[in-house]
Specification:
It is built from 4 helices and no strands. By secondary structure, it is mainly α.
Amino acid sequence: MSQSHVKANEKHPLFPIKNVIGFVLSLILTFVALGLGAAHILPFGPIMLIIMGLAVLQIAVQLFFFMHFMESDGPAYHVIGLTIGIINAVAVIGGTIWVMTFNSQVH
């Protein structure tokens, strides 16, 4: 075997335990959010805050376990892309809330 093939196998083990852990964490976060929404054990506001917190955790799991966010050796282009994505998400969500609030004030 060549040196590059041996190094590639060292970097990527046969059993992808990191992907399995990320998948299980994603399932747990999803089912906790679903259970909270379906059980109606708390008022609407606290449930929405908890579900939003779980969504942020879900984003972190996706970034670190599946998208290998911190494993890059090169320039930090992924940080720039993530920043642009966050700005776009805030603009879309903020604009949607603003439009919905304006619509409720008109009627």
